[in-house]
Write a structure and sequence with these properties.
Elements lengths: L1 H10 L16 H5 L9 E17 L4 E12 L2 E4 L4 E7 L5 H9 L6 E7 L5 E4 L11 H11 L10 H4 L18 E3 L6 H10 L21 H16 L3 E5 L7 H16 L5 E5 L5 H4 L4 E6 L2 E7 L3 H7 L10 H9 L7 H19 L8 H4 L17 E3 L4 H18 L1 H21 L9 H20 L5 H16 L5 H11 L1 H19 L4 H25 L3 H15 L24 H14 L5 H7 L7 H27 L5 E3 L2
Parallel strand pairs: 4-9, 4-10, 5-13, 6-8, 7-12, 8-9
Antiparallel strand pairs: 1-2, 1-3, 1-5, 10-11
Helix pairs in contact: 4-7, 7-8, 14-15, 14-18, 15-19, 16-20, 16-22, 17-20, 17-21, 19-20, 20-21, 20-22, 20-24, 22-23, 22-24
């Protein structure tokens, strides 16, 4: 019986269950007899730890005790990731599934110390757990944008190449990862290809011109957004190895099945492709699409091998799946017994014993039939047959990517009301209120007139700058999208930084023009053109600070707090509340640190210089020697310094994680 089952698995699929030949070994013995100890698809992890600190207070001694210890996230392990298959990394909460996936993808957190080797040749892409998309694109226009982003010079065939692969018997060799593949600019290059991709993603025809949407305007539902994000991740590079972090998270069973069917169709047509996923309580239909399983418990591998052998493994150890029970939930419940501290260790030992036993008996403990373990039929798996060559995208020139990202940044500002529209609605009423409050202010040397104009200029150099913090939530979201695309090798983060920085200039120009038009017209301020350029540089510096904070801080609320604190500290240093000579001697140097200082004294000099009483006013604020052109150059250089710091942060964060992962 065992021989018949093994032969059947090697030669063909099983009925209408949708089980496709994936190149998986028929038993553990074939794995052990491979000549190369560290062959393609193998992962070896020697250690994975994070430093944890426990702080306690002793009342008797009035001392604070800080204990530092290393917390083991994953114990030493060795797993195999077969090509041409979907490998699911499963386990209960805290078992280490996400950590293992990040290790395989080379995206471990910076505070984690680990050592290991991963042999996954070819291109790689990472499909993150969170969905981050631009609101204004539709599914069709989003794919076209990615086509432009990737160079837009794909070869004929379009989207078909995304889900098509060379037959396994003619697959190119991949020894050492040096695969000879023909390159193209994009995996998608025509309207027919776009429609085929959207068909594969199960996005209805009448929804393909619907925007993604956000809190301001509804668009695609979460399931459609998730599938679109997956399609964009795959179409970006058509990777040889695709890492998917909880692709079914927050989705209903039907949408989860659609996502997994897409992955199945993607991996099944090229024997060199791998899909590695973490799943959160998948349905039986989704479970039947999995080929290989890595089951974890408390950081230990308690099962690793083909999915159809799991029932044999647990039955061999006296834990068969009860009738009418979900097999996966039964397996996780068996290995995740929180009442026993040694449960994971015991199952890890059981796995080793079972592997040795199967090696000796050459497959006698395989399940007799898949249907008896998983009595369910699944829908037909999406397969697009073709005989085209596998392609690897060409990333093109940086300036083309810059232009595509710049266009996206400008469109985002025009179509996302939170970036420009709401700021115009916020700035305009405040400026109108100021214009009414200071309407036709008398231009004389009276104390009231001078003090009122100085106060208005201080407010202009402080409040408008301070309100730039409103753009941080949208910059933070843009940064998340950037990290996803950079992670998948689309472009360098500096290219995105320059595109976002240049794309924000029109926003600053529009806001500065509105403020200048209202204030100068209603209050009768002097030299409106010079006032406009000073205000433009002030808002540009504030915008540069916001962009810098978005590169340093992932939580936009924390970024708002930090940026508001920086701008708040700068206000009393401008020279309006206290002139520099009154500053304490050890703090006097702070007067020249914030860019607010140069904005305020340029405003003051622009307003009072040349009047009969202007010299006296400027002397009272100790800014009589101000050179506006020089201060404007300082403001321009100040913004350039901020952007240089941003570039340095991006270079430092993109140079690699704190890891010791070796690729053969």
């Amino acid at each position: 019986m065992t021989t018949d089952v093994t032969k059947r698995r090697k030669e063909s699929a099983v009925g209408n269950l949708g089980v496709i030949e994936t190149g998986l070994p028929t038993n553990r013995h074939s794995i052990q007899t491979v000549a190369s100890e560290f062959r393609e698809g193998r992962c070896i992890l020697e250690k994975c730890e994070v430093i944890s600190r426990a702080v306690s207070f002793c009342g008797a001694t009035n001392k604070v005790d800080v204990k530092v210890k290393n917390k083991v996230l994953l114990h030493p392990l060795r797993v195999d990731l077969p090509a041409g298959s979907i490998t699911a990394v499963l386990g209960g909460a805290g078992s280490g599934t996400s950590t293992l996936l990040k290790f395989l993808a080379g995206q471990m957190d910076k505070n984690v110390t680990y050592d290991g080797k991963v042999n996954l040749p070819g291109s790689k892409s990472y499909f993150a757990q969170e969905t981050h998309l631009h609101r204004f694109y539709t599914p069709r226009t989003y794919i076209k944008h990615y086509q432009r982003l990737m160079g837009g010079s794909g070869s004929p065939g379009g989207c078909c190449k995304l889900l098509r692969g060379k037959p396994s018997n003619n697959a190119p060799s991949s020894v050492g990862g040096n695969r000879k593949l023909r390159r193209s600019g994009s995996a998608i290059n025509d309207d027919e290809g776009i429609e085929r991709l959207l068909d594969a993603l199960r996005i209805d025809v009448d929804r393909r011109d619907t925007i993604v949407g956000d809190t301001f305007k509804k668009g695609l539902n979460p399931g459609e957004q998730r599938r679109l994000d997956l399609g964009l991740t795959v179409s970006l590079r058509a990777p040889d190895t695709l890492f998917c972090e909880s692709p079914d998270l927050g989705l209903d069973s039907e949408t989860s099945l659609n996502v997994m069917e897409f992955l199945k169709g993607y991996v099944a047509k090229d024997s060199n492709r791998r899909v590695i996923v973490t799943l959160d309580r998948p349905s039986l239909f989704v479970w039947n699409l999995v080929d290989n399983v890595i089951l974890l418990s408390k950081g230990r591998v308690v099962y690793e091998g083909p999915r159809f052998d799991m029932e044999s493994f647990f039955a061999y150890h006296g834990k068969p799946t009860p009738k009418r029970f979900s097999p996966l939930e039964h397996y996780i419940a068996c290995v995740s017994n929180f009442r026993s501290d040694n449960n994971a260790v015991n199952w890890e030992s059981a796995l080793k014993q079972w592997q040795e036993k199967v090696d000796e008996d050459e497959g006698d403990y395989l399940a007799d039939d898949i249907e008896t373990c998983f009595p369910s039929a699944i829908p037909e798996v999406l397969l697009i047959s073709a005989n085209n060559e596998t392609t690897v995208p060409s990333f093109g020139k940086s300036w083309l990517k810059f232009l595509a990202l710049l266009q996206r940044s400008i469109l985002d500002a025009l179509k996302n009301p939170g970036i420009l529209g709401l700021r115009i609605l916020m700035y305009t009423p405040f400026t109108l209120f100021l214009g009414l409050l200071f309407y036709n202010l008398q231009d004389d040397e009276s104390y009231e007139s001078v003090n009122s104009r100085a106060a208005l200029l201080f407010y202009s150099s402080s409040f408008y700058i301070f309100m730039v913090v409103a753009v941080l939530p949208f910059l933070a979201k843009e940064r998340l999208i950037c990290r996803k695309e950079v992670l998948n090798g689309c472009y360098h983060p500096i290219t995105h930084h320059f595109a976002v920085s240049v794309g924000s200039i029109p926003n600053v120009v529009i806001l500065s023009f509105i403020i200048t038009l209202i204030l100068v017209g209603m209050v009768k301020l002097h030299n409106p053109v010079q006032f406009f350029f000073i205000l433009l540089l002030a808002l540009w510096n504030a915008e540069s600070y916001a962009i810098l904070l978005s590169t340093c801080v992932t939580n936009y609320i924390l970024g708002i707090i930090i940026l508001a604190g920086i701008f708040g500290l700068a206000m009393p240093l401008e020279g309006f509340m206290l002139v520099p000579s009154i500053f304490p001697s050890y703090l006097r140097w702070l007067y020249l640190v914030p860019f607010h200082t140069y904005v305020f004294r340029s405003f003051m000099y622009n307003e009072f210089a040349g009047t009969s009483f202007g010299e006296m006013v400027l002397k009272s604020y100790e800014i009589e020697g101000t050179n506006i052109k020089q201060d404007m150059v300082v403001l321009l250089c100040y913004s350039l310094v901020i952007h240089c710091v941003s570039v340095a942060v991006l270079l430092f964060s993109s140079r690699g994680r704190t890891k010791k992962q070796k690729d053969p």
